[in-house]
Structures are given as structure tokens and as C-alpha cells.
Amino acid sequence: MPPASIPARIAYLLQMADLSTENGIAKKIHQQAAAWNAAGAQVRIFGQANTPEVWSPPAGVTVALFPKGSPWRRYRQAGILCAAVRAWSPDIIYFRYAYHAPGLPALFRAFPAIAEVNSDDQREYPLTLGPLKNLYHRLTRHRVLSPILGFVPVTRELARVAHPFRRPVEVIANAIRLDSLPALPAPPPGFPVNLVFIGSARTPWHGLERIGELARIFPQWQFHVVGDDVSIWPLVSPQPPPPNLTFHGTLPRDRYLPLVAAATAALGTFGLYRKGMQEACPLKVREYLALGLPVIGACADTDIPEDADYYLRLPNNAAPLAPHRTTIAAFLERWRGRRVPRAAIAHLDTSVKEAARLAFMTRIVSDWRTAHDLPPIKT
Asked: What is the Cα 122 distance to its own chain's centre?
């Protein structure tokens, strides 16, 4: 029997994703859709957003965004969005899961759907949502997830979100298109130590106060934060920011690349313990590695082996970092004048991850069509 064809029409359904600016999530969605399109699928992105503007629509991919507006308008627009997906009649819906919205459960019963899980919503949302929104989420999450036929958590730890639903699970960590980024040359060995952190604004589990702690431990080094401005600091620490910690605000890639090029290493996530989690696969870490920078972080990474010499893993807790001073200094001394070779991170490439994702989609669609006594998808 010939192998099943990949889904011909993939509806990429988004929630809580800002496509109007250059950010990590927008880049990820762009690369995923472009990879599916290149593999021969017709891809259409649907979602509710604050603005219908798109920072950089992938070639060959149609984007249909519906403005959110007031709660009543958002409720109405959710129905319009679901009607648009139905009218297009996809072979599968790839759902970047965030919350329940009217019309979604019925939509997922009409078409096979896979949910990508990027966070443990039951632990994270109490940190980021108000009490009423969090209550609504708790009361409705089972409705939106129970019709889902397969789950794609981005870490092994997040697979627990899917366990109650007894559906197939395929762990696929975040990826990066390696050929889209330059392999930056390293600063000369005698160049001053610079460390860079790139993240999204006002995210508690980034652990910015821990980066400030590192800056106080190593006053001779320079620390650069991209994605937040200094106004965030009173919310994360009662102390003033150390003088060697510089906030650059939100910058597009062409403006933060000079900071990265001058850096000895980059900084990952330092506050994941706030969500009660131990494992992550941050998009920023993949970008750092693609650019050639070794990384210091405070959590396990799904795709980075424990013995990888390019990733220094510190404890994922609130304990002082001073006892790790010698280990951190030795790591940076070892990497001064060096960059991470591409061969060491080839497994992070989008081509590897999206081949696995398309194979999982194909399996789900094939099983669904068999269960509904429908013929296989034709090439």
C-alpha cells in the first residue's frame, strides 16, 4: 500500500499570536507555514488579532486575521472566523492552542484537528490573566480540547497537558531555520565580555531580576536586554538596576544583531520555576545557537543534551547565583573567541522538525478519514 500523502489543505489556527511585528512567535509561525507550503501543502493562516496587519506573510500562504476589539465583538468575530475555516474546508486544522472560543469545539468535530501546546496553561495563566479570565479558562478548556485528535507539545514535560484526553502525542520542540541566519564570527579572545538576552516584554518567567543579579556578581562584564525597557525594572526588583545592565527595548533583528555579534554568550530563561516547570525550548535559545552563541540558562532544554558544551545549565530556582560564579566564569573563558559550530545544532533546523510535524498530521488525517469511511487524500 503506498504511503499516505501529506494533507493538501492545512488551516493554521492562531490564538494570542501577534503577527504584526517581528517577534519570536511570528517568526516561528512564518517558518512553519513556509515549510508546509514548500512540502506541497496549501496553507492558510486564520486567527483573531489586535490588528490584521502582518509583519512578513510567508510566500504562497494566505493570512486571514479577524480583529478582536471589545469582548462582545471578539465573541462575534470568533464565529466569523470559524465560518471562514469551514468555508475553506481544510484537510486538517493545526491549532496553536491558548483558550476556548465560541465555535471551536464544533469546528474540531467537523474537521480533524491537532493542538500545539506551548505552555502549561493551568499553571501559567494564573500568572498572566485576571481572576475572571482565568476562571472562564478553567471552566471551558475541556470543551475546546476534548475534540482534538492529536497533541504536539513542544517539550516532554508539557505532554502532561494532553494526558487526560488520551490522544496521540508527538513532542516536537521549537526549531529555527538555520540558513536564514548568519553564523556570526566571534569577537577576538581579548574583547570585553558582553552578554545578551532577547525576549518578549513583561514575561515573569524570563527572570530579568536574575540577569540583574548576574550583572552585580560580574560588574566587569556588560549585560544587554532586548525586548524590555528599563521601565520594567521596578516590577522585578526593589533595587535599582546595576550600571552594567543596559535595556534596549524592542528591536528588530537587524538592529539587535550588532549586540549579538559583540557578545561572548547569550542568556536564556531564568525564572521557569515560577510556572512550576523544569523544561523549555525557547525560541530565543535556538536563535542564539544559530547565530553561534553559547548559552547560559536555568532550565532543561528539550533538544540540548545534558553534556552539550555550548549550554551551561544553572539551577532552576530562586537560590542565589553567587555560588556558581566560578562555573560561569570558566564557561565564558572557554568560549571567548569561539562560536558554536552549525554541525552541533543541525537537529534544531526547521526542515527536521517540520518533516516530523507533517508526518504526524498525515497520520492523524489518515486515521480520521479511515474512521469516517473516506478515501485517502490524493496527491
From this structure: 18
